[in-house]
Each structure stands twice: as structure tokens, then as C-alpha cells.
Amino acid sequence: MSKEISLKNKAVKFYDNIKLNLGIKKFFKYIAKLLLKIHYFLLALLYYYPKYKVENYVGRKISPKLKVLEGPFKKLAYPYFPLPEQHFSTILPKISGAYEKELFPVIKQINKQKYSVFINIGSDEGYYAVGLGKLNPQAKVYAIDINKKALSFSVEMAKNNDVKNYFSVESSSPFAIDRLIENKTCIICDCEGYEKTLLNPKKIGGLINSDILVEVHGKAIGDILQKRFSPTHNIKKITQTNKMIAKVPIKFLFLNYFHTIDEMRSEECFWFFLKSHSHNPKGSGA
User: Fold this and answer.
1) Shortest CA distance to 87 belongs to which of 166, 217, 190, 176?
2) Any idea what the Cα angle at residue 110 is, between residues 55 and 117, rounded to 5°?
3) Which is nearest to 91 in space by CA: 102, 80, 106?
4) CA-closest candidate to residue 273, choices 104, 72, 140, 95
5) Does residue 51 contact residue 76 with C-beta atoms inside 8 Å?
6) Backbone CA torsion sign across 272, 277, 283, 285
7) CATH 3.20.20.220: does it fit domain 51-276?
8) DSSP labels for 47-71?
9) How far apart are the first and last CA of the chain?
């Protein structure tokens, strides 16, 4: 009889433990949901807070010296966090290493080519122009932008990174660009749709022998560029992908993750890497 009672007591304790464990799991599940709600609430507040102040604060937290954390331009250093009027594109993803991460393999390929000239059309505050200048001291780098304050900042950034082969150019006329092109030239272009007008071999003859990495704003423009350059270039299309960051410190990642990767793009875009047949014979790959 006592043996049966003992077995019964053990069974009761066993089921009580199961209930207790289930209760603990429910409690932690509740806490997790609550923390997630708080996270989204704080994130919403951050988005309503002035963008510059948020980016400046987060940028200095994840990289106190404002150095790029990942990618081909790793350790590229901003002299200070640029003011809103000194740049067009968002800065924080550049510092975190998430900015246009889809292009990392192409940029690495470009850095191996030993170009004599880089022309960055739509250079903004200098992320690509100074980054390429730092990695390619043998080349002349021309930064072209209609924003004079962005160009001035890019000159400061070139000095901050000891890049001496750097030149800023205000004019984006086809004539001015054609004069800059030399024997082995690479053009990096992001001009918000103006690529449709500007990247035309009939206006800039030197484009035929230049390699071009261009951000394309819309399928219609992409079709036009593909028709223009397919006779003279191998064309590789690069599409947007999901962003992940490896280098952002965990203690800042939770609340600021979306700010560190958000490029503030208003539309779907893609890129063409146009490699001239004069550098890479047709059919031999990009």
C-alpha cells in the first residue's frame, strides 16, 4: 500500500514540475514579447527624431573615430559627421559597412585592375571617390557633383585619409567628362536618373573604352543603357539584396540595427557593371 502511495506521490510531483516548467516558459515568452514591443516603440521614436542627430549619435557609438567598419573601404575615416547639406545619401550605412554591399565583389574586382583614372559622377561626400583613391594611389581620381558643399567635404575627407591623387570637379557636362577620360578609365556613376542623358557614347566618345559601374534608376533607363552599350561592353547586372552587418557591436545593434542598414531608397534600383571590350574581349566574361 505504501509503495503505491509513494509511486502516486512521485507521479504528482512529476506533473507539478511539468506545470511549473510550462509556467516558466510562458513567463519568459511574455517577457520576450514585451521587450520586442518596447524595442519597436523606441525604434518608432528614433524615426521621428531628427535624422541627423540620430545618425550622428549612432555613428559615433558604433565607430567612435567614424571609420568604415566593413567592406572594401574598411578603415576609411570621416573627418567629422557631415551636416545634412553636405551629403545627399545616408551616411550611417557607409560607416557600418552595409552601404551597397551588393557591390563589394565588383569593387574588389575594380581595385585589381590598376586603372589610371577614376571618375566618380555623383560623388556626394566622397565615400567612393576617396575610398578608391586610397586603394589606388597610382590613379587620378576625379569627384564630380553639383553639390558644392558635398565636394568641399570630400576634399576634407581626402586630406583626412592622406589621399593626394584627388581632384574635385563641379561641372558634369559631357565635354568636361570626356576630357578627363584616359587610356584605362573606370567611371562610377550615381546621378539619380541623369545617367539616361549623360551616359551616351555619342556625347562622350571616351565611354566606349571605359569601364562603367552605374546605379540604374528604373527598368526603362536600364533598357536604354543596355541597348547603347551592348555592342561595346560586357554587361553585368547586380540587384539589391538583404543587408546583414557583422561588425556593429551587439550592445548597439538591438535598438539601432535598422538605422545602420537603411539606405533610404525611395525605389527599387539595380546596377550595371559595363566592362569595355577594349579591356575585356567580348565573350571572355565580366
Assistant:
1) 190
2) 95
3) 80
4) 104
5) no
6) negative
7) no
8) HHS-HHHHHHHHHHHH-TT-B--SS
9) 85
Q: Is 262 exposed, middle or buried (0-12, 13-18, 19+ CB in 10 A)?
A: middle
**Residue 100: which of 215, 210, 235 has the closest Cα?**
215
**Above pLDDT 70, what percent of the chain?**
71
Q: Are 67 and 75 in contact (CB under 8 A)?
A: yes
- Report the DSSP pairing between strands 211-216 and 140-144: unpaired
**pLDDT tens-digit profile of 167-206?**
888 777 788 899 999 989 999 999 888 899 999 999 999 9
Pick the more confident residue, 208 or 16: 208
Distance CA(28)–CA(41), nearest Å, equals 20
Write out the three cell numbers for 45: 521614436
CA-nearest of 210, 188, 134 to 166 is: 134
Per-residue pLDDT, averaged over 126-147, amounts to 95
The domain ranges of the chain are 51-276
Q: Which of 107, 101, 96, 156 is nearest to 130 (CA)?
A: 156
Radius of gyration of the CA atoms of the chain, in A: 26
Region 216-235 average pLDDT: 95
